[in-house]
Amino acid sequence: MPGSEIVNPVDYKAVKKVSIDSRKIEKGCLFIAIKGEKFDGHDFVKDVIKKGASAVVIERKKYSKFEDLNVPLILVDDTTKAYGYLAYLWRNKLKTRIISLTGSAGKTTAKDMIATLLSEKFTVNKTLGNNNNHIGVPLTIFNTTKDHDVLVLEHGTNHFGEVAYTAEIAQPDYALITNIGNSHLEFLKDKKGVLREKISLFETTVKGKGTIFINNDDELLSRFNGYKRKITFGIRKGSDVKGKILEYTDDGKPVIELRYKKEKIKTEFNLYGEQSFKNLLAASSVAFKLGLKKKEILKGMQKLSSPDKRLNVNRYSNFILIDDTYNANPDSMKSSLELLSRIKIFKNKIAILGDMFELGETSLKHHKNLAAVIKRNKIGQVYVIGKMMKFLNTGLKKSGIECKHFPDRESLSGFISTKDFSDSVILVKGSRGMQMEYFVQKIKERIL
Fold first, then answer.
1. How many other β-carbons are positioned within 10 Å of the β-carbon of residue 295?
2. Residue 230 is inside which H or E element, if any?
């Protein structure tokens, strides 16, 4: 590693595994002591040596605490960067093709869809959970072996420079940006800032002579059509992979069509929401490019499911519950409200909404703007919680829509426990910090 220094080099042996988790140390493992939000890996150095770690990477400034240890110690200025650099080295030993993706909405769903479709033809590894940051991306790369044909790697961000950093580690063969929306505006400021942060994934991939997948329907991304190695996808004419929703079933599922060169797929899609279709369109473009045939894509589509708390549509005897509580931003909120309106099986449309976070100075505007979306989609009942949702409630007061703002979780929970939800479609959605899944559980308890 550049700038590193090794103490006790005579005892150094080739390592079998790299780990930052002291609980998972095996004999012959290299442990990297990273300082996280809750724990500092340096506090566990002596423990991992007892467990059989053959070498440890520590920060140079902390060496005085470990001078008495008789194992190879690798001293670096920043153990987090050292971890990333080692992941970069491992990535370059792999023949695995890496498909990296990011975006304002849908990247986790699109990642899972790509992995599921490609599994019909290849041995695939993918990002698990929320491991999409400066620690999670290296972790996923280290969990990839020479047996994997493909790695589908998710890149997250909420500050400038994070995607560029993880993209340099991953060196993608293919890159996809799902969309550019109003997400993480607290630090990225506006859509142009979001674009500037996300587009670094394309720039790194192009520099490495990889192929990029361009969302032709996204106004900001469609401007990057000048790259030579590219595949465009979208509803717009002229897209390499073209898709459209032909109609919706009464329970809100889309009947879709996909086209690529001479291939044509027409089927009812088993996932809900326009955003799910857009994610499928993105995933299909990757599948087509990597050589999957119609039969393989259709087989893979049958195995697709929505990730937990992301547009999970559950039908009960006399109502439908849409659990979309994983997170929320203005674009995903709009899509979910449109889905709520689209399901025709039950008459009443009810939205239970919590605040959208990380919108910075634009937060008030985006919460107020939801009123127009709700009116346009004829949502009859809206119940909200959170400091910012109070402004949405005010904006709906004179609309004829039944609406109410709840000052705390207890009052909303009490309302849910007595509310008649029969003949209704109910959407529950809000940002992660609002923990709106609690109210989903309260609704489910009514039928247990």
1. 10
2. strand 230-234
Packing angle between helix 274-289 and helix 107-118, nearest 10 degrees?
40
Condensed to tens digits (0 to 9), the pLDDT of residues 1-34 reads 788 999 988 888 888 899 999 999 989 899 999 9
Q: Report the alpha-carbon distance of residue 39 to residue 32 in Å, rounded.
A: 13
Q: Classify residue 88: in a domain, yes or no.
A: no
pLDDT in tens, 378-404: 999 999 999 999 999 999 998 989 999
267 and 410 assigned to the same domain:
no
Query: Whole-angstrom Cα distance, residue 43 to residue 168?
Result: 30
DSSP alpha helices (H): ranges in 157-293? 162-170, 185-188, 191-198, 200-207, 274-289
Under 8 Å between Cβ of 392 and 384? yes
Inside any domain, residue 307: no
What is the total count of domains within the chain? 3
- Residue entry with tokens 């060169």: 261
Q: Are residues 247 and 228 in the same domain?
A: yes
Phi/psi at 359 (5° precision) = -105, 0
Domain range for 317: 312-445
Is residue 86 a part of any domain in this protein? no
Pair 443, 413: CB distance under 8 Å? no
The pTM for the full model equals: 0.82
Least Cα distance to 167 among 140, 203, 128, 212 occurs for 203
R_g over Cα of the chain = 24
Q: What is the CATH number of the domain that holds 418?
A: 3.90.190.20
Are 278 and 350 members of one domain? no
